[in-house]
Task: structure prediction
Amino acid sequence: MAPRPPPGERAVGMEVFLTDGAGIGGHIKTRPEDFVVEEQPRLPAPGDGKQVIVRVTATRWETNDLVEHIASRLGIPAGHIGFAGLKDKQAVTTQHMSFPVSIQRARALDIPRVSIEILYRARKPVYRGQLDGNHFHVVIRDIEGTKRQAQHIHREIRAVAGFPNFFGVQRFGILRPITHRVGKHVVAGDFKKAVMAYAANPMPDEDETCRMARQRLEDTGDFEDALERYPPHLTYERRLIAHMAMHPDDWTGALRELPGSLLHLFVHAYQAWLFNRMLSERIRRGIPINGAVPGDVVLPMDRGDMQQREGIPVGERNLDKINRQIARRRCLPSGLLVGTEATLASGVMGDIERTILEREDVSADDFAIPGMPSLSSRGLRRAVLAPLSGLRMEVQDDMARLMFSLPKGCYATCLLREFMKTSIQSY
Result:
């Protein structure tokens, strides 16, 4: 029997494991080079346009921070820089970007721990989601389990040809898993609570200086005092606080001080939390993630998109055909990313989706957000299985190496958690 997931995972909706037995423990990202990610991009065609297409290899840079830093150096808005996907900070990442500047200005960029290779000019930028997937090379150090335990989990994963397509803990924040809480308040139209959930709301795993500053703001609501106390590295929190100090009660304006990508992330994180809970319940009920049941909605995989607006309903008449297609990875069963236009399943999966929404007291209509209409979401369906390719594993002494490729939108840490089964701080 699989152990119960740690509290940090259960808090973000990952309430079960797929694989049986104890994990091997250990830690990832002990060193940045222990977590190497390389995009498999879909790049725009070369041309005589104003975009410079570059390959960026960065160590210990989160994508949003890196984009803002590059934009500042180039003297352009951050929104003018194109990139395909977000990457973690504690890693060595290779991704592709586009800059609407001259090749000379792009070549002159000199940023610590970043290598920028000029590829070519193009008429179109790099767009979000414009990639097939990512290839990973991960080292797990200080493992406590045996090689036999690791091999047992490896066989289980291979038998399913994938793992649960949860949104990983980094979608919510590892030290401060609060993005979904902020998103819940945004969806409810309570922007005061959203600001306070992000800027205040102390967490036990933060360093003491940050935690005490947040606690004081939580207790007093004094934004001028908070501006003196918050450390400089809390850049986004300080933006909110500075706005509130100058414009009391303008909670909507404070949120608009944040990057648009972060504001959308809040709403997406709330959708992700609901999805994780629905997927956990599917697994808990023994419904396969690598097979369909009546009432499911399956997504065609001809383009490799793990999230789609619509899918194919499954009934008794097409069930066998659909499951043959799933076995060939031509389609996958899905779960709900709730929004104003998302299709709910029927049957047992539909019952799960409706029950979770009722428990949370949220509806599809709530994702039309009048106070910040740009954050409204139509919703999607997301595959419940993350299909693996090229999985290889080596275990030696107290270290394991895993090499694998995943489609875009799938989290490597959700594979690693099946092997490790340890606290989220180890990720």
About this structure: The mean pLDDT is 95. The CA atoms of residues 298 and 333 lie 4 Å apart. The longest helix spans residues 260-284. The radius of gyration is 22 Å.
